[in-house]
Amino acid sequence: MSGFDDREQAYEKKFAYDEKVSFEVEARLSKLYGLWAAEQLGLGGADAQTYASDVVAANLEEPGFDDILRKVRKDFDDKGLDISDHVMESQMQDCLIEAKKQIENK
Q1: Most buried residue, 26, 32, 37, 64, by CB count within 10 Å?
Q2: Which structural domain, as residue segments, surrounds residue 76?
Q3: pLDDT band at 20 (very low <50, low <70, confident <90, very high)
């Protein structure tokens, strides 16, 4: 029975680790995407950092990234920016790739 218990504990540790990494990647993606959106909005420095933090907070509203896309879409529309959903989603994918690289290399 000891071998089974060891295997079960190993799976539990792997699951916990994978969940932690997934959360870190999602948080990093949100920040990177927020910084990109801030740049599009003409924000820089501390204002860009604050905006990126707002995007990270918006991501906590529901699973997935639709909450981020809604927030940024509204902000772009309020500012009169003509940035397509396709461009926004493409940038999201680029941020996901970069977030994974950054988390893997830390």
Answers
A1: 37
A2: 2-104
A3: confident
Instruction: Return the CATH number at 25.
Output: 1.10.790.20
Question: Which two tokens mark 26?
Answer: 């999602």
Residues found in the chain: 106
d(C-alpha 69, C-alpha 89), whole Å = 8
What is the number of domains present in the chain?
1
User: Tens digits of per-residue pLDDT, 34-49?
Assistant: 999 999 999 999 999 9
d(CA 106, CA 94): 19
Task: Using the predicted structure, report yes or no on whether residue 11 has a pLDDT greater than 80.
Answer: no
